[in-house]
Amino acid sequence: MKRVLGVTCAVLSAVLAAGCSVEVRQQSGGDVEAGGPVKIVVVPKAIGFDFWEQVRVGAECAGSEVPNVQIHWDGVSSESDVSGQQSLLQDMLAQGGVQGLVYAATDAKALSQITRTAQGQGTTVVNMDSGTEPQPPDVPVYATNNVAAAQMGTQLLADQLGGRGKVAFIEFQPGTSTNETRAEGFRRGLAANPGLELVAEQSSESDYNTALQVTQDILTANPDLNGIYAANEPSVLGAAEAVRQAGKAGQVKIIGWDTSEGQIQSLREGVITGLIAQNPFKMGYFAVTAAIGEITGDPAPPPPTDTGSMLITKENLDTPEVQKLLNPSCANPPA
User: Fold this and answer.
1) pLDDT, tens digit, for every residue of 152-201?
2) What is the pLDDT of residues 32-79, one digit of tens each?
3) Burial class (CB in 10 A: 0-12, 13-18, 19+), 163
4) CA-CA distances (angstroms) from residue 316 to 6, 242, 274, 275, 281?
5) Residue 201: phi, psi to the nearest 5?
6) Which residues contact 84 (CB under 8 A, 6 or more apart)?
7) DSSP 272
8) Rounded to whole angstroms, how far apart are CA atoms 222 and 211?
């Protein structure tokens, strides 16, 4: 932790002083020992989501700070497309010339073979956001402490409900480490607040329309519902729209994960009452920094690290600290 934090702080200080130019470099072969480019493939769970776009900015920023590093960013269009991500990663590794693989596993067990394959051919592997099962001891995971953050968000929901009420839980993809740890934190929060009663639990399958439908069903079955905990961006947005359509905005409290433009707008409108904000820029930045350090011969990266989280409400939304987190850049990185 200390080594990467030290490197990161030094790099970020230089960035703040001089700014940086970030671009996506196209994939090409290269032999590190012969002075060729260091090629690092970075694959999120899915492309097209605000959260993963901020991860991309952080990853590319880290790559731009080291000469002769190429960052190739690619991914599937849905976080539930486990086989698609497997095929994409297999194809990238089969092409050869990849010195580093930084990826977020869509399924902890299904993707473990990808890590083994990559390491077997001498590729450095780093996980971001979600690791695998088993997680090799020499593969660090740079991610949010989902259990602690989820428990913090559940406590906010309890506070908003005065410690009592009927609540629903909308998970997104059972089987992923991120989903399971966010569920664990939620349940710990419930245990600490016995006045909360869990009356419904459904999966959105990480899909907006599915989240909308399951929330509508929950509201129909539980007209006296007081609160919702939704575990990722599509789940939150679908739940918020269902509550809005039911005419219960503000009446049914919604605490959810991530900070897309639609979520922030719903927070301003009072439909969503709290968001658990991660630091995706730092997630991408730290993961790529660790991969570069390992490839270029620096000491091995530190143990897995929590990249941080905070609660955002309508009251603190416009503070400088929150705005920097919501709008990260290489020239003005979040803390």
Assistant:
1) 999 999 999 999 999 999 999 887 888 999 999 999 999 999 999 999 99
2) 445 679 999 999 999 988 899 999 999 999 999 999 999 999 999 998
3) exposed
4) 30, 25, 10, 11, 20
5) -145, 120
6) 76, 78
7) S
8) 16
Nearest to 50, CA basis, from 330, 186, 237, 312: 237
pTM given for the model: 0.80
DSSP per position, 21-57: ---PPPP----GGGT--EEEEEE-S-SSSHHHHHHHH
Q: Give the position of tokens 């999966």.
A: 203
Scanning the structure block, which residue is given the tokens 């990249």? 307
Tally of CA atoms within 13 A in the half-sphere of 34 that contains its CB: 5
The set of residues, in sequence order, having a beta carbon less than 8 Å from that of 191 and lying 6+ positions away, is none
Any idea of the CA torsion for 220, 153, 263, 310, to the nearest 10 degrees? 180
By DSSP bridging, strand 274-278 and strand 309-312 are: antiparallel
E-state strands within the chain: 38-43, 69-73, 100-103, 124-128, 141-143, 165-171, 196-203, 227-230, 253-257, 274-278, 305-306, 309-312
The C-alpha atoms of residue 19 and residue 37 are separated, in whole angstroms, by 23
Q: What is the Cα–Cα distance from 214 to 7, expressed in whole angstroms?
A: 45
Cβ atoms of 181 and 147 within 8 Å: the answer is yes
> Is residue 88 helix, strand or coil?
helix
- Amino acid present at 268: R
In this structure, what are the phi and psi dihedrals at residue 243, rounded to the nearest 5 degrees?
A: -65, -40
Parallel/antiparallel/unpaired status of strands 165-171 and 124-128: unpaired
